[in-house]
Write a structure and sequence with these properties.
Blueprint: H1 2-11, E1 29-33, E2 42-48, E3 58-63, E4 66-72, E5 76-80, E6 88-96, E7 99-108, E8 112-119, E9 138-146, E10 148-149, E11 152-153, E12 159-165, E13 173-176, E14 180-184, E15 192-200, E16 206-213, E17 219-224, E18 236-237, E19 240-242, E20 247-255, E21 264-269, E22 272-274, E23 283-287, E24 295-303, E25 311-319
Parallel strand pairs: 19-25
Antiparallel strand pairs: 1-2, 2-5, 3-4, 3-6, 6-7, 8-9, 9-14, 10-11, 12-13, 12-15, 15-16, 17-18, 17-20, 20-23, 21-22, 21-24, 24-25
């Protein structure tokens, strides 16, 4: 009976058990500066929330699998990103006394974003500059992102845009395909900033842009209108103009007003208001009477009582 018991013991199957090693749990995080880098931009990546003292730990940094830096306490690395849409994988492993205490990797896909803006204000024909906003006008802003996925540029309509004004944490506007907004200055004539973040639907790419806008005040550009040549847009009147014939016609073009029809216009000659005008009050014809020479101060002014900051004046000398 003892022999049988030993035999049964020998023949009994042996059950093998495997030890399951839990994955390394770590609070290690990577901070990227700047937060949303653009193509070709140099970025700094910093390891944060490392367990223990970073000065006693060894950091090994890799970019796209290649070791670029390592050493005690080296918790920061700097590298330069590639073209728009390219992927740069940055990883770090942290050891202390030969024991792995943390590891992390991130993938950066640089993208850029430009903001094009202009005031919803008037500018005369052939004016080279863009229309500028005033303290009481509207500004139109358009985001132009540059993102690529799999070698194809991402359509602007497939991106989600989040717009901010000044330092507000609450979005001004947010929406899919919302690449254009209209905004007014929150502090009248004070400078304000507008920023936007564009993000792909899967959240793998982000780009941001910011512009600072300083509202201006309306200006006036004055032109002569000879009878046979029409308005001389190529030659603005600045300080003085000479009367060569018996009469001369001036046309005023306001810059950066909401509408040509809204302001009230006034012409004055040596302080006396001229009642006979044309083009809705923006044109005046002056005629010479008598002989001799003279110098006259010509002033043109505008004021829109419905818009707080829409007023301007311009003057020059007429000689004959």
């Amino acid at each position: 009976m003892r022999f049988l018991a030993i035999a049964l013991l020998v023949l009994a199957p042996v059950v093998a058990t495997a030890q399951v090693i839990p994955p390394l749990e770590t609070s290690l995080e990577l901070q990227v500066i700047p937060n949303n880098p653009g193509p070709g931009e140099t970025v700094t990546v910093r390891a944060q929330n490392v367990s223990g003292s970073s000065s006693a730990q060894t950091f090994v940094w890799r970019v796209n699998g290649q070791t670029v830096d390592q050493g005690l306490g080296r918790d920061t690395v700097t590298t330069t990103l590639g073209s728009a849409g390219s992927a740069t994988v940055i990883s770090v492993s942290v050891t202390e006394n030969g024991t792995l205490v943390g590891e992390k990797s991130i993938t950066l896909r640089p993208a850029s974003l430009d903001i094009v803006w202009e005031g919803d204000t008037y500018r005369p024909p052939l004016y080279a500059g863009r229309p500028l906003p005033t303290g009481s006008s509207v500004t139109t802003l358009h985001a132009v992102p540059n993102m690529t996925q799999n070698g194809v540029r991402v359509s602007s309509s497939n991106l989600t845009y989040t717009w901010y004004i000044n330092d507000s944490q609450a979005p001004y506007r947010r929406g899919l395909g919302l690449d254009t907004i209209r905004a007014t200055s929150p502090q009248f004539e004070n400078e304000f900033t507008v920023s936007v973040i564009a993000e792909t639907r899967d959240g793998t790419q982000r780009a941001e842009g910011e512009v600072a806008i300083r509202p201006t005040r309306p200006e006036i550009v004055m032109y002569e209108r000879p009878p046979l040549l029409g308005i001389r847009f190529d030659r603005a009147i600045t300080n003085e103009v000479a009367l060569s014939g018996n009469e001369i016609t001036f046309v005023a073009f306001p810059l950066f007003v909401n509408s040509l029809s809204e302001p009230e216009y006034t012409w004055e000659v040596n302080g006396a208001v001229v009642s006979e005008t044309g083009r809705g009050g923006r044109e005046v014809t002056l005629r010479k009477s008598g002989e001799g020479s003279g110098r006259f101060s010509i002033e043109f002014s505008l004021e829109n009582t419905a818009a707080l900051f829409e007023r301007a004046a311009s003057n020059f000398l007429l000689t004959f």
